[in-house]
Structures are given as structure tokens and as C-alpha cells.
Design a protein that fits this description.
A hairpin with an 8-residue loop joins strand 4 and strand 5. 40% of the residues are buried. The radius of gyration is 16 Å and the shape is globular. The protein has a five-stranded mixed sheet. It is an alpha/beta fold. The protein has seven helices and five strands, in the order H-E-E-H-H-E-E-E-H-H-H-H. The two termini are 30 Å apart.
């Protein structure tokens, strides 16, 4: 995915739901902080953007997104990218993550905004999940110098609970 594509997904989410803001919680949230040209290939390989809406307790908006621009939708077939509606429980995030969201709002987002995870919160969530694709993602950002190991360790250690996952993530970071 590239910057124009994440802006398209934000624009579509805002248009479909009537909400002014959508939270981008998946790997492509990195595109709010960096231009695709600065990112390693493993950080932009996904064609999916995980999105959520604050105050969507019944998942109505997430379901609406899945149906309209989700996987195998006409949007997906036409543009080769899609959004997946999720809720906040999908990821373990460091405390204060909502205060660090990176706002992506420009003429390409249709008057709305994508509130995207800060790169360190994003990488912490990836290391808590620790799937193979998440390891590649974080490793590529560390190896390219975009993410500093020390800051990432601080975010992981500040996260309450999940002690086993924290130990595993910290072992990965050495």
C-alpha cells in the first residue's frame, strides 16, 4: 500500500460511515508518519488497512466497512486494497496510545481524518502479536533505522499486564 491508497481508504471510510475520523490500527498506519518512499518493502506489502471507530460498541460501523470496502468487495476488486473493520481489542497497545495518534488529513482524505497509530505503538502491538509477518515488519523498520530499539523497548515495558507477551517481545529485541 502507498500513501495515496491509505488516503483513499480513509476517504471511503469517512464517506461510508459519515464519521469525521477513522482510526487506522493496522500496519499501514505507518503511512501517516512516513512517505512510502522512505519505508522498507516489508512495511508496505499489505493491501489491507485495519480500521476502527471510537464509540462503535456494537461493531455496526466496523461491519459496514467490511461489507462496503472489505475483502472481496467491489472496492477490493477495483482498487486492489481493502479495509477491515476491527475493534480495540484486536491489539495490545501501550498506555497513552490514543494521545499519540498521528492525524492524516489532507485534500485526499475527503474532509475526514485517519487517526493512525504512532510507529512505536504500532510496532509494540506487532511484537505482542508476534506472528511471522509482524516480526518481518518490525525487523525491517528496525534495520532501516526508522524505529529506535530503545524507544520500542520503553513502549513495551510500559504496557501493563501481558507479562509473557512482554518477555517474548523483549527477547526478540535482544
Amino acid at each position: 500500500m502507498n500513501n495515496t491508497e491509505i488516503e483513499h481508504i480513509i476517504r471511503a471510510c469517512v464517506g461510508i460511515t459519515g464519521r469525521e475520523e477513522v482510526v487506522v490500527i493496522g500496519s499501514q498506519a505507518i503511512l501517516a508518519s512516513f512517505d512510502v518512499s522512505r519505508l522498507p518493502a516489508d512495511a508496505t506489502v499489505s493491501i489491507e488497512a485495519d480500521v476502527l471507530f471510537f464509540n462503535d460498541e456494537d461493531q455496526r460501523l466496523a461491519d459496514l466497512i467490511d461489507g462496503a470496502i472489505g475483502e472481496l468487495s467491489q472496492f477490493h476488486e477495483t482498487f486492489g486494497i481493502y479495509a477491515q473493520g476491527v475493534d480495540e481489542t484486536i491489539a495490545i497497545l501501550p498506555p497513552g496510545w490514543q494521545d499519540r495518534l498521528v492525524r492524516l488529513s489532507n485534500r485526499n482524505t475527503g474532509g475526514g481524518a485517519g487517526l493512525c497509530l504512532d510507529p512505536y505503538d504500532l510496532c509494540a502491538a506487532k511484537l505482542f502479536a508476534l506472528r511471522e509477518k509482524d516480526i518481518r515488519y518490525v525487523k525491517s523498520l528496525l534495520d532501516s533505522g526508522i524505529i529506535e530499539r530503545k524507544v520500542l523497548i520503553e513502549r513495551i515495558t510500559s504496557t501493563p499486564d501481558h507479562e509473557q507477551k512482554k518477555r517474548t517481545a523483549l527477547r526478540f529485541l535482544g
